[in-house]
Amino acid sequence: MTTVATQIKLTPEHNARPGASVRSRLQDALPKIVLAPSFAITIVFVYGFILWTVYLSFTNSKTFPSYALTGPRAYQRLWRWTFESDPPSSWYTSITNMGIFGFLYIFICLALGLFLAILLDQKIRGEGMLRPIYLYPMALSFIVTGVAWKWFLDPGLGLEQTLHQWGWTSFHFDWIKNKDFVIYTVVIAGVWQASGFIMAMFLAGLRGIDGEIMKAAQIDGATTVQLYRRIVIPLLRPVFLSAFIVLAHLAIKSYDLVVALTSGGPGGSAWLPSNFMYEYTFKRNEMAVGSASAVIMLMTITAIIVPYLYSELRERPR
Amino acid sequence: MLRKLLIGTALGSGLAFAAHAQDVKEVEMLHWWTSGGEAAALNVLKEDLAKQGFAWKDVPVAGGGGDAAMTALKAMVAAGNYPTASQMLGYTVLDYAAAGVMGDLTETAVKEGWDKSVPAALQKFSVYDGKWVAAPVNVHSVNWLWINKAVMDKIGGTEPKTFDEFIALLDKAKAAGVIPLALGGQNWQEATMFDSVVLSTGGPEFYKKAFNDLDEEQLKSDTMKKSFDNLAKLVTYVDPNFSGRDWNLATAMVIKGDALVQVMGDWAKGEFNAAKKTPGTDFLCYRFPGTDGSVVYNSDMFGMFDVPEDRKAAQAALATATLSKSFQSAFNVVKGSVPARTDVPDTDFDACGKKGMADLKAANEGGTLFGSLAQGYGAPPAVANAYKDVVSKFVHGQIKTSDEAVTQLVNAIEDAK
């Protein structure tokens, strides 16, 4: 701030032009000056470190970063692990889990969110009370969600135990202890947390739709199903875009949920790539492999999000 | 504003300068001993140092636990802001020493005669390149059985001396309707148990060659396959709900009498102590069957960093106090471990502690003191974690046969080297 102030004071002395022009020039520059710090911070701490991670992935960094480039050995290892399915390598488990989790999480959240939003939009009584109830889980941190669901799903503690005590002794639900199903419990907890928020997004979208269009459709004899399928849902397209992006990034960064809910699952069967990255970088002192996995995560997200954004945003101006 | 800043800087550097002339009477310590018993044990050290006029300053670690602390340490060291000392485990000390950030305690070590009193196997981790870089605080050993005495009496069991007797004992418990084996299905607990199984199945020589020297011949030998088969046998005695359970909950099952036995390191004794149980009357501690005479250890160390000159005196005082007989005794009585030097009197220790100390001494003299691979004292973290992966996948069924397990083990260790 000091430098800026000094410049302003100094300028009139050195500048022959009258003050008004200085002022207007300053006004022109002001947005840039104000934005500069955050721009610089973003450049360094986001893009700078992305480049640094890419660089590290080509070294043989172990506990500490080392700066001598040694070729793509880390990628070769990851590539080999990608195809080790029996017994599954940790990397294979992580990426298949990412596929299962990412798809189900995004799909169920969108479907459930839309469904709840449509139900809530039927001008029902008590909507003001219901909405926050659905929205509330979003206010919890992943750790809280994870621990709560861990207890609830634990066969010796939660649901199964309770139903056994109520007399339904044949009830059996041990997904959280089962290496093949543990990833689905992560989906359950994740959907529980995020679907209310997605519902709120869709609800806002529904409220934004012009009532005249609906009336016109009804007059033309459209049934409720047709009304939603042909008119309302297509009109909600921008909301789908926002919801998809919110969900996709939540899915990719779900690290804490896995840790709190399953602590990695039986034999590491609930790992996601983010768990893999943390585990290799910080616990196993294989920083190069960790960095390489982070780069692959980034590439994957880019490959999915960029074409989607491009196709969606390009149509806007029309 | 600028003037204020200038004055501030001048004052600040002046202060720093003044302080430089005199030693800093403070130790800055990074550790994760925050639970009741551990914190109380550490208090003994704080008071020792306070008597000599050194203040104690904890380095705060968010999140607790060793992982968070190690991440914090990495950041501090990368920023060149070394603490006086940090709690460290095994190969971490050597990693940091190789990076050239550790201090030199040799002067203190010679004065205090650590060369003779600290077991040679431990010195592998506390001495780097001929220089003492860490002060060992304690020795934990992992090849223990913790047994609920009431349950043991009920089923009429006796101390198992061989692996087969152990299986027979577990069968008895199963027949009596208690959970025979309390296990937490997390990879480090499974691997910790497997350390004992390997030592029991293959004997001390085999353990050393396979898990400390990482000899490929031994890793893929039939003895290793048999060890995996034995592990598979043990896993049939756990309750169906074991996966993901924390170790202290498994210990609690033994304490409450829901389960007969837990295979766990001697930190489990801390849980028994906290529940006001006495060894011999409430619970029994035996060596894992077939491993009597050998000790598979891990050890907590205080790694000493290369601090500025004015902090060296405080560091030396901390190191001296850490390995003083009085602290070693007082701390380890509470912690459940045994002293890191073999010449500490065992008068204050309970029966299990006394046995642990005698075993450590004998193992040190007989050359049967081995680093635990599961606890990161057998091989560097990359290898140790690859090992834990394989054991855990075997326990949970991703790896189906012992043949496959051995192949995976060899590959994983080769990959991580």
UniProtKB/TrEMBL annotation, chain A:
It is found in: Cell membrane. PROSITE patterns: ABC_TM1 (PS50928). This is Carbohydrate ABC transporter membrane protein 1, CUT1 family. It comes from the Bacteria. It holds the Pfam family BPD_transp_1. The keyword tRNA processing does not apply. CDD domains: TM_PBP2. Keywords: Cell membrane, Membrane, Transmembrane, Transmembrane helix, Transport. It is a multi-pass membrane protein. Residues 95-310 form the ABC transmembrane type-1 domain. Belongs to the binding-protein-dependent transport system permease family. The chain crosses the membrane at residues 33-55, 98-121, 133-152, 181-206, 227-252, 287-310. GO terms for cellular component: plasma membrane. One of its GO terms (biological process) is transmembrane transport. Its main location: membrane.
Automatic annotation (TrEMBL), chain B:
PANTHER family: ARABINOSE-BINDING PROTEIN-RELATED, BINDING PROTEIN COMPONENT OF ABC SUGAR TRANSPORTER-RELATED. It comes from Mesorhizobium muleiense. Belongs to the bacterial solute-binding protein 1 family. Its main location: periplasm. This is Probable sugar-binding periplasmic protein. Part of a binding-protein-dependent transport system for a sugar. It is found in: Periplasm. Keywords: Periplasm, Signal, Sugar transport, Transport. GO terms for cellular component: periplasmic space. It holds the Pfam family SBP_bac_1. Residues 1-21 form the signal peptide. The lineage of its organism: Bacteria, Pseudomonadati, Pseudomonadota, Alphaproteobacteria, Hyphomicrobiales. SUPFAM superfamilies: Periplasmic binding protein-like II (SSF53850).
